[in-house]
Amino acid sequence: MITSLKAYLSERLKQELPGRIAHIEAAPYRRIEFDEKELSAARKSGVLVLFYAIGKEPYIALMQRPVYEGTHSGQVSFPGGKQEESDRDIEHTALREANEEVGVIMEDVEVIGQLSDVYIPVSKFNVSPVIGFVDYHPQFIIDNHEVEELIELKLSDLTDINELEITKIKLSNNTVLKAPSFVFNQKIVWGATALILNELRHILKEWKS
Q: Average model confidence (pLDDT) for the chain?
């Protein structure tokens, strides 16, 4: 199953992506288009959407960030972070950050493409989701300063979803927001990570395992 998934995504990611419609469905503020001035001033960030198998079932790795004084406190995300000057490209950024945060061995990851970029207005990051595969179940080693919990998400738990839930989210400034969300085992996934997952969900509607 994981082999056919990699073959499918390798070809599908070369085609036009459903980013716009997927992002509209999942965006908490329903704004997904930003002007060139905003985007040119954005900091670049890369996240790794890592596929692997447990038994015959495909999984992807998410993580929950610790609670801290910051914009993304306690949120569920993909491993990743901001691009450094020493990074060769955004793929290297995603792989390096995944190695630092959850112990992914960079050299073992086969990168097959990217999803649509996601701009995060509140932190002014433009996030590039990098798609990669490893041919084994990784032995994740988490950085406790960056990661509260690793979340291994069975891919069928994503693809079986027909539509997102509307969830009340309490922000760090105590504002309560109603946001489109995924809920996996009581973990609420919203914001940029939900946009990325929703595009992946759209793409995988066409996959026949």
A: 92
Would you list the DSSP string of 77-114?
Answer: E-SEEEPPTT-SSHHHHHHHHHHHHH---GGG-EEEEE
- Where do the structural domains in the chain lie, given as residue ranges? 2-155+191-204
CATH architecture of the domain covering 2-155+191-204: Alpha-Beta Complex (3.90)
Report the alpha-carbon distance of residue 195 to residue 146 in Å, rounded. Answer: 22
| Segment 45-70, tens digit of pLDDT | 999 999 999 999 999 999 999 876 65
Residue entry with tokens 């960056």: 146
d(CA 2, CA 37): 41
> Residue holding tokens 């950085």?
143
